[in-house]
Amino acid sequence: MEYKILGKTGLTVSSIAFGALQFARIDRKEAINLVHLAYDYGINLIDTAHNYPGSEEILGEALKNIRDKIYIITKSLSRNKKEFLNDFNMSLKKLNTDYIDIFMFHSISKENEFELLKNEGIIEALVKEKKKGKVRFIGFSCHNPQVIDRFYELDDFSTLMVPLNFMTGEYVQKQIYEKFEQFNIGLLAMKPFGGGRLADIELCFKFLRNYPKFIPVAGMQNLKELEENIKYLGQADLLNENDKEKIKKISQELGTKFCRQCGYCMPCPKNISITDVNFIKVYYKQMPMDKFYNMGLKEIVKTAKTCTECGECSEKCPFNLDVPAIIKENIEFYESISI
Length: 339
Ligand code: SF4
Ligand code: SF4
Hints:
CATH architecture of the largest domain: Alpha-Beta Barrel
Oligomer: single chain
Distance between the termini: 43 Å
Order of helices and strands: EEEHEHEHEHHEHEHEHEHHHHHHHH
Bound molecules: iron/sulfur cluster
Number of strands: 10
Number of helices: 16
Strand order of the largest sheet: 3-4-5-6-7-8-9-10
CATH class of the largest domain: Alpha Beta
CATH superfamily of the largest domain: NADP-dependent oxidoreductase domain
Strand content: 5-15%
Radius of gyration: 19 Å
Largest sheet: 8 strands, parallel, barrel
């Protein structure tokens, strides 16, 4: 396993992080065993979140005897101080630990969400927890490159998780990447395989080789996936001409349909939650089935069916996506798997 320094945290972390989102899809014993196998392979960085079903509890058990050898990232989606602190304390309890290595404000993808964190005293509250030693480093996860600039207002901003794969190169545009380097931000790449939408894992790792400061956070559900990730990570070389051609071809195929969940296209005059509808197939691949069927998608899809194809969303989308077409495709998919 190759190790890297995670930006200004100074932590020496494995060059791949274990994404623990999908634990509720597998048997508890198997999940615990998988964490131990990942550790045996040299993985020492694990990503979870308060809202990943069952994930923190399973990790709490799995890490019992190796807690001091592993760095834990967890996150809260809460935008209310009391709830946020409750999430934070629950994370400590479930993870069976006195401290979190990296605590992130989860999915801060709009200006007003960042403002809320500030105005509600949520950032201040986490900084206080850091001073008490209950969290070592603070970060953000984000789906919108335009909001990232705001994070630098916070002295404690040391880590960032954004979607990075060869379809979402906006996070490595020269100006943005240079600023990451200037501030020595510890970088994590979520959705390195596009949330299951990019099948060529080797090609995905090769792309990431070009941005060595990013540590890919790869969701793993079984030994096969773990071993495949380790294998391709180790083999990944820089992109050659043939790879670039492959990426060009895939980009042409997926180009008008690859939603980043950034939310620029919202609000919709029909109140459609575009970011959720566009991700139904991804949710289906990543979520435990009970959670998938209980996350309110039925209502979301019902609203989505009122789409008038006015095109307002497509005009606002910076990636020129055919949003009504993506919505339609996801509605059809949802209806095909509905129980
Ligand atoms: S449709 Fe476009 S603007 Fe809307 S979330 Fe997806 S990528 Fe972002
Ligand atoms: S095309 Fe549909 S989803 Fe997009 S803004 Fe219009 S009504 Fe909303």
